[in-house]
Amino acid sequence: MKFVVLTIFPEMFASFWEYGIIRKAIETEKILASTLNIRDFAEDRHQVTDDRPYGGGSGMVMKPEPLAAAIRAAEQKAPSAPKILLTPQGRGFNQKIAHELAAFEELVFVCGRYEGVDDRIDHDLIDDEISIGDYVLTGGELAAMVIIDAVTRQIPGTLGGEDAAEKDSFADGLLEHAHYTRPHVFEGKAVPDILLSGHHEKIDNWRLESALMRTLMKRADLLQKKDLGAKEIRILKKWSRRIEDILKSYHRAHGERREGTEKKS
Ligand code: 9D3
C-alpha cells in the first residue's frame, strides 16, 4: 500500500511513521509513505496557501491553485489512488471503510486547514470525502493519521500475530472480551480461573460470554443490530433467565406490587 499525504504540515507525520506497527510495516515494505507539502506548490514569493473568504467573515480559506497543483503531483506519484479529502462534511469513518480502503494499492489524502478549502476543489480533483467524527479538529492531518493507522492494520502481515484484524472488535460486531496477563493476582484481583485451565473450548466460550457482556454493558447499540448466532442467543437467554429469577425472588420477598412503584430502601 502506498500512502501519499498532502499537507501544509508534513512535519506532523515525521514521528507518526516512526513507531510500532506503522514503522514495522514501512520497514517490511508492506506500506510506502510520503508527504507532499502543499506550500511547495504555491507560485507566489511567500508561498501563501490561504486567503480571506469572498463575502467576508472570520477565518481563512485554503487557496485552490496550490492545492490543485499538489493533487496533480500526487496523481503522478500514485496514479491509481482515489484522492480522499479529509473534511468535517465527509462520510463518517468506520471499520467498514477501513476495510474498503485497504483493498486499494494506493491512497492519496488531502488535509485541509483553516475554515475549509475553496469549493472549486471538487469532483474533478477529489474522489471521496471522509470525516473521523462529529467534533471539530484544527485540520485534516490527525484524521489522515487515524485512517492510515486503521487501514495499515488491515493489511496482511502487519500485525505480527496473524491475523488479528479478522478477530478485531467491530469486525464481528462485538466488543473484545476482557484480557489479562501476569501477575495472577493484582491488587487483590485474581485472573479468572478458566483462563489458566488450558481447556481451549471452555476458554473460547468464556471469551464469547465476556465479549457479549461487555457489549451489552458498554455498547448495547452494537448488540441491537448484530446478527446473533445460536451460541450467542443461548448465552443471552441464560442471563435473561437469571435476571428474571432474581426479580421473581425479589417480588416474592417484598410482596407483589406494580414495578416502578417500589418504596425507597
Ligand atoms: C464552524 C465551521 N467549521 C465546520 C465544522 C469549520 C471547520 C472547522 C474545522 C472546518 C474545518 C475544520 C478542520 N477539520 C478538518 O479538517 C477535519 C475534521 C474535523 O474537524 N472533524 C472530524 N473529521 C475531520 S476530517 C478533517
| Class inferred from helices and paired strands | alpha/beta
Computed CA radius of gyration, to the nearest angstrom = 26 Å
What would you call the quaternary organization? single chain
What is the share of helical residues? 25-40%
Shape, per Cα inertia axes: elongated
**Structure annotation, total helices:** 8
Q: What's a concise summary of this model?
A:
This protein has 265 residues and is α/β, with parallel strands linked by helices. Helices cover 36% and strands 15% of the residues.
Describe the protein.
It is a single chain. With 265 residues, the chain is of the alpha/beta class. It folds into 2 domains: 2-152, Alpha/beta knot, CATH 3.40.1280.10; 228-264. It is built from 8 helices and 9 strands. The chain has helices spanning 20-27, 64-77, 95-102, 141-152, 164-167, 200-218, 220-225, 230-254; strands at residues 2-7, 32-37, 50-51, 61-62, 83-92, 106-111, 128-131, 185-186, 189-190. It has a 5-stranded parallel β-sheet, with helices on both faces. A hairpin with a 2-residue loop joins β8 and β9 (189-190). α3 (95-102) crosses α4 (141-152). The protein is elongated, with a radius of gyration of 26 Å. The model has no long low-confidence stretch (mean pLDDT 95). It binds ligand 9D3. Ligand 9D3 binds next to β5.
